What we know:
This protein has one domain (4-141). Helices cover 46% and strands 23% of the residues. It has four helices and four strands; from the N terminus they run H-E-E-H-H-E-E-H. The chain has helices at 4-21, 58-70, 72-79, 115-141; strands at 36-42, 46-53, 84-90, 96-105. A four-stranded antiparallel β-sheet has the order 1-2-4-3, covered by helices on one side.
Amino acid sequence: MFSKEESGKLRREFxxxxxxxxxxxxxxxxxxIKGFSFKFYFDTKKALVVLxxxxxxxxxxxxxxxxxxxxxxxxxxxxxxEAVFGETxxxxxxxxxxxxxxxxxxxxxxxxxxxxxxxEFFNEKMKQFEAFYREYEDYIKx
Length: 142
C-alpha cells in the first residue's frame, strides 16, 4: 500500500517519463469542439485511452456521440477494433458523459514493471484515435 504522497510521486514520475519517452504533441483537448476531448487514464488496475464527450447539454452530447457511432464500423475495422462505445457513462464523481475507449488491464501505475507496456499502449492507441479523428474531423464538426 502506498501513502498519498508516494502514490502522487509515482504518478508524476510516470507522466514525466511518458512525456520524455514519447514526446508527441497530442490533440487531447484541442479538438475545437467544446466538451470533446481525448484523454489518457492510468490507475492501479488499468490504463485507458478515451474520447470523452462531456458537453453539459445532453442533446449536443448525444449529437456528437451519434456522429461517432455512425462511423463505428470504420473505427472498429480500420483503427481500433477493441473500442468500447458508451453513450451513457458515469464518471467517479457521478457526472454523466459519453465515452469511447480502449482499455488495457493487468497494469498498475504503482508497478514500474508495467510502465513501458502502458506507455506503448498509450502511444499506439492514441495515434490510432487521432488518425481516425483527423480523417473524419470535418464530418464530426459539421
